[in-house]
Automatic annotation (TrEMBL):
Name this polypeptide is given: Iron chelate uptake ABC transporter family permease subunit
Stretches that traverse the bilayer: 71-92, 99-120, 126-147, 159-179, 206-224, 251-276, 288-313, 319-337
Major localisation: membrane
Assigned protein family: Belongs to the binding-protein-dependent transport system permease family. FecCD subfamily.
Organism of derivation: Lysinibacillus irui
Pfam families: FecCD (PF01032)
Keywords, alphabetical: Cell membrane, Membrane, Transmembrane, Transmembrane helix, Transport
Subcellular location(s) of the protein: Cell membrane
Membrane-topology annotation of the record: Multi-pass membrane protein
């Protein structure tokens, strides 16, 4: 399986690179893959002197400053939401769980709404939206975590109920702020953000999401055995040496950190963390040694293409990326539910 896994991973990585290249090429101004890679390679200090700069300034701006950071962020967000979804589904042993079930998205939405409508954190300038959305997501998960503790232990059943309750409350807060506002431009901006958008991608706001993604990815992959044991049930996991409460807390914090950071830069993009782990389990089974990396690759590919379609489908306007993911995710999930032979953990 290891050779097949490595081969399959390399194929997916190649598909991801090709997808990202095509996504940079398409738009109101088309560019060739030759110039895409010449511009990108010219930014690498070691080899930039060997690249002949025969492109225009406008091409460089389009490729390097506008499209490349957006496409890279799409890959990071897609990969991050996918592994977060896979981890949450193992944590709660529920195939319909996703990163937003803990109220993280609703908390981030309150923070973003506060900035756009009320002008909160305006002293942070261009970072105000990301910081406030991240703080909102942290507040939401802290509240959910507090409500789910019983006798010093985290109850999964209470965690799910608390996540839904907090999500409903925070969504109501966001809607109340929207209803009280009379700024039409701000209302449109908030709604666009709530449906997901990567339009604000810049090189300076990719560093933190990329760092957090690789950190969480590495930690989840290192603990793939514990994730596998969670699927066997609490008693089996404890019997086989898992410190269940400690691992659950670590897992909740890691997933919350990753999702909060991603939502802060991309808005609420649904279905990625829900459907990608299902697709991966249908392909490679339920062993998290394979589920985590393959989910990251397929999640990245999926969101790169979703963002590309969001940019071109109603050009010159842009469609919120959450609409694209919902159109793809909804029918797939219905098909999955109708499959008589599908069950959570298929392929063990």
């Amino acid at each position: 399986m290891n050779k097949k896994f490595m081969f399959f991973s390399l194929i997916l990585f190649f598909v991801l690179i090709v997808s990202m290249t095509i996504a940079v090429m398409v738009g109101s101004v088309s560019v060739t893959p030759f110039y895409v890679w010449k511009v990108i390679l010219s930014k690498i200090p070691i080899i930039q002197n060997g690249i002949e700069q025969d492109w225009s300034r406008s091409q460089e701006i389009i490729i390097w400053q506008i499209r490349a950071p957006r496409v890279l962020l799409a890959a990071i967000v897609g990969a991050g939401l996918a592994i977060a979804g896979a981890a949450i589904q193992a944590l709660v042993r529920n195939s319909i769980a996703d990163p937003y079930i803990l109220g993280i998205s609703s908390g981030a939405a309150v923070g973003a709404t506060s900035v756009i409508i009320l002008g909160a954190f305006s002293f942070l300038g261009i970072y105000a939206l990301s910081v406030s959305a991240f703080l909102g997501s942290l507040l939401a998960i802290a509240l959910v975590f507090f409500l789910s503790r019983v006798g010093g232990r985290v109850s999964i059943f209470r965690l799910l109920l608390a996540g839904m309750a907090v999500s409903f409350i925070l969504t109501a807060v966001s809607n109340f702020i929207l209803m009280m506002s009379k700024q039409e431009g701000a209302l449109k901006a908030v709604m666009f953000w709530m449906l997901g958008s990567l339009a604000g991608a810049k090189w300076n706001n990719i560093v933190i999401p990329a760092f957090i993604f690789f950190l969480v990815f590495g930690l989840l992959w290192l603990h793939y055995r514990n994730l596998n044991l969670l699927l066997l049930g609490e008693e089996a996991a404890v019997t086989l040496g898992v410190n269940l409460q400690q691992f659950r807390i670590q897992l909740i914090l890691l997933v919350s950190l990753l999702t909060g950071v991603l939502v802060a830069v991309s808005g609420s993009i649904g279905f990625v963390g829900l459907i990608i782990p299902h697709i991966v389990r249908l392909i490679v089974g339920s062993n998290y040694k394979y589920v985590i990396p393959i989910s990251a690759l397929i999640g990245g590919i999926f969101l790169v293409w979703a963002d590309a379609f969001a940019r071109i489908i109603i050009a010159p306007q842009e469609m919120p990326i959450g609409i694209i993911t919902a159109f793809c995710g909804g029918p797939f999930f219905i098909w999955l539910l109708r499959r008589n032979n599908y069950s959570f953990g298929e392929g063990d």
